């Protein structure tokens, strides 16, 4: 009798275990993810280089040998500050020579002025004597000719003085150009010369220094493909990362979309300018930036994982005109039609009056996973 009760108990336990396993298998048939509210951000990815907004190339308009350099890389300079100086010896010699020529021209002018005064008085005197018949008409004409000649010589002397003045001013300007000064307040980011180096300004103005006007405000020049440029609008927020600060995300604004395109390997791209606030001084010109330009953002909307949009039960062969998702309810599976909104790599916004936050959206079938797991268990060890 006792053995009989034991046998019945064992059978009952087995039946309960089978029921539990059956219920567990039934409920674990599908893998679900709850529908939640989230923020979906759409963006365009690009890469670019950090550059100062305004960089001035400081050169020289005269040729010569660099005698002195007063600044170096990263030097903070003021407008008009002396950056470098060319050897002024030749320029000073030209100025001295021009001064001498000007003095000579002025002396010639004074001489011509005095000669004109004498010739004029002589001509007036001969005219007066001719009226009294003391001299002949030829004498008067000769005096007049001398007067007109003296007048022309005075004009020529004045022209020589003007030419000497122009030459002097030109040489003074060249002497002034031998001193290289900063045109703006800023920071020296590049120096291309050393003391003793000869610079030639015969055809092009050589660049000696590059001065960034304001390093607290910089920009990123990014290249955006033609497929994405239509989504970019001035004023959009852009987030970017720098290799030197991998644990930080910086933020900027789209300030310009340049219309000129660039074609490389049959790929057309456009330059998009992102403004950068560098008040902390962390960003350095030349850094590479990975940029994400936010084109749209849906906040606090109903979201579902993208896998749920692709799920269809194995035994379902019906085709639907609208997009839908399957929800696991207490009574089983139920399909709901939904409208889709913004989407990213993981989630998509759904619009529906029937679906509520917390509903269980089916993303895959659990039976497939168990089948795959069993197959993996049967594989021989490697």
Features:
39% strand, 4 domains, four-stranded antiparallel beta sheet, OB fold (Dihydrolipoamide Acetyltransferase, E2P), Elongation Factor Tu (Ef-tu), domain 3, 382 residues, conserved putative lor/sdh protein from methanococcus maripaludis s2 fold
- Helix percent band: 25-40%
Principal-axis shape equals rod-shaped
The CATH architecture of the largest domain would be Beta Barrel
- The low-confidence parts are 19-28, 368-382
Report the biggest beta sheet as strand number plus sense, adding barrel if it closes.
6 strands, antiparallel, barrel
Task: Kindly name the structural category.
Answer: alpha+beta
With helices defined by DSSP (H or I, 4 residues minimum), what is the helix count?
5
Beta-strand level of the residues, as a percent range? Answer: 35-45%
What is the CA-atom radius of gyration, in angstroms?
A: 46 Å
Please, could you describe this protein's structure?
This protein has 5 helices and 20 strands. With 382 residues, the chain is an alpha+beta fold. A 6-stranded antiparallel barrel has the order 2-11-14-13-12-15. Strands 3-10-8-5 form a 4-stranded antiparallel sheet, with no helix packed on it. The longest helix is centred in the first third of the chain and has 43 residues, at 89-131.
Chain-wise SSE layout:
Elements: H1 2-27, E1 30-34, E2 36-52, E3 55-59, E4 64-69, E5 76-77, E6 82-86, H2 89-131, H3 137-177, E7 179-181, E8 186-191, E9 198-199, E10 207-212, E11 217-225, E12 237-242, E13 245-264, E14 267-277, E15 288-305, H4 306-310, E16 324-329, E17 332-337, E18 339-343, E19 347-351, E20 360-365, H5 366-378
Antiparallel strand pairs: 1-20, 2-11, 2-15, 3-10, 4-6, 4-9, 5-8, 6-7, 8-10, 11-14, 12-13, 12-15, 13-14, 15-19, 16-17, 18-19
Helix pairs in contact: 2-3
């Amino acid at each position: 009798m006792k053995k009989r009760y034991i046998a019945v108990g064992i059978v009952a336990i087995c039946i309960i275990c089978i029921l539990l396993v059956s219920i567990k298998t039934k409920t674990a048939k599908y893998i679900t993810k709850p529908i939640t509210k989230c923020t979906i951000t759409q963006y365009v990815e690009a890469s670019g280089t950090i550059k100062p907004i305004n960089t001035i190339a400081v050169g020289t308009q005269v040729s010569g040998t660099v005698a002195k350099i007063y600044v170096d890389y990263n030097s903070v300079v003021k407008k008009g500050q002396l950056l470098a100086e060319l050897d002024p010896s030749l320029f000073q010699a030209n100025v001295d020579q021009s001064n001498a020529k000007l003095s000579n021209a002025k002396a010639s002018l004074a001489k011509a002025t005095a000669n004109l005064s004498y010739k004029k008085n002589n001509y007036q005197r001969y005219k007066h004597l001719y009226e009294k018949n003391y001299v002949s008409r030829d004498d008067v004409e000769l005096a007049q000719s001398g007067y007109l000649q003296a007048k022309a010589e005075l004009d020529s002397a004045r022209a020589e003085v003007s030419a000497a003045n122009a030459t002097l001013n030109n040489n003074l300007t060249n002497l002034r150009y031998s001193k290289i000064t900063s045109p703006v307040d800023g920071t020296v980011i590049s120096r291309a010369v050393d003391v003793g180096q000869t610079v030639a300004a015969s055809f092009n103005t050589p660049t000696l220094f590059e001065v960034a006007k304001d390093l607290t405000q910089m920009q990123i020049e990014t290249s955006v493909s033609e497929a994405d440029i239509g989504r970019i609008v001035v004023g959009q927020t852009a987030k970017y990362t720098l290799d030197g600060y991998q644990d930080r995300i910086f933020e900027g604004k789209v300030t310009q979309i340049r219309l000129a395109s660039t074609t490389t390997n049959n790929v057309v791209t456009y330059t998009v300018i992102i403004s950068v606030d560098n008040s902390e001084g962390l960003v350095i010109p030349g850094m590479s930036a990975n940029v994400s330009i936010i084109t749209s953002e849906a906040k606090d909307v109903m979201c579902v994982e993208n896998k749920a949009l692709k799920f269809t039960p194995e035994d379902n062969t019906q085709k639907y005109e609208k997009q839908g998702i399957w929800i696991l309810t207490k009574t089983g599976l139920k399909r709901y039609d939904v409208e889709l909104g913004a989407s990213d790599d993981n989630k998509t916004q759904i619009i529906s009056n029937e679906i509520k936050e917390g509903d269980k959206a089916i993303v895959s079938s659990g039976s497939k996973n168990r089948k795959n797991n069993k197959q993996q268990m049967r594989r021989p060890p490697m």
